[in-house]
Amino acid sequence: MQETFRKIRSAAYRGYADGSVDFFGNQVEFITGYSREDFLSRTVKWMDIIHKEDLSSVKAIFKEALRTDKTYMREYRILTRNGSLRWIQEWGQIVCDAEGNIDYVIGVILDVTEQKQEEERKRRIALRSGRYLTFRVGHNEFGVSIENIREIVGLSPITHIPSCPECVPGVINLRGKIIPVLDLRKYYGIMESKAGENESLIVAEYSERDTTIWAGCTVDEVCEVLFIKGEFIEEMVDLFSHSLPTGVWGVAKLEKRMILLIDVKSIFEDVFKNPELRRLIKTQFHGM
């Protein structure tokens, strides 16, 4: 019998204006961790376990239903007895007395957590899908969203700036624009081979507050632009619980290839905390 209840992720109820709820069966325990008796005794009120960030929308939907046809459907999160979050879809009918005051609410709650998780998985896959510029640094292949790339140029003379991190050899003048240059080899500690004749500078951009900033990364070789489907990308947070390398957010697993996907904004923000570099970045916008 208990196994049957676990499979039935729904529970019928009768609710009241003070936020208390009487459930008609024991299914609620397998959704919330709280027993039917916890709710009947008012030890727990349903409104008390709704996630605080969802409370305002939950109340707004109820008020709108009360003003109109007295029926509603709302989705929100609850905090279960063990502290986990679950998604609830609730269908309700408000019953009022002759004076128009709330007598009770009757309805059903459904646990739609698995559905929401699947929706989130598909959303993340869609966000990951896209065109990536791939390049090589040492024996490693990297990729960055093509949307972040402004130019790919050959290396021009780099002006050294004192007091900058070792991974920042200096700046270049790109058609009058001062561009800080980041050496990805040194940033990631890749020293197993030397750069060759195909060494290039990838000029990328990122936004900081209301400002768009350009910066360059030296790479050993630019490879190609690939469209990579999100289902072939694993996010680093899913692979490692801690000690993630800065800026590396995912791994694309293709035939005979593993491509480390990087976020230039995270890398540049990490490197360009240096005060001298901050001053130079400002010159992009002040005509120096």
TrEMBL record:
CDD domains linked: PAS
Domain PAS: 1-69
Gene3D superfamilies according to UniProt: CheA-289, Domain 4, PAS domain, SH3 Domains
Cellular component GO terms held in the UniProt record: cytosol
InterPro entries noted in UniProt: CheW, CheW-like_dom_sf, CheW-lke_dom, PAC, PAS, PAS-assoc_C, PAS-like_dom_sf, PAS_fold_3
Coiled coil: none
NCBIfam families: sensory_box
Protein name: PAS domain S-box-containing protein
Organism: Thermodesulforhabdus norvegica
Highest classification ranks of the organism: Bacteria, Pseudomonadati, Thermodesulfobacteriota, Syntrophobacteria, Syntrophobacterales
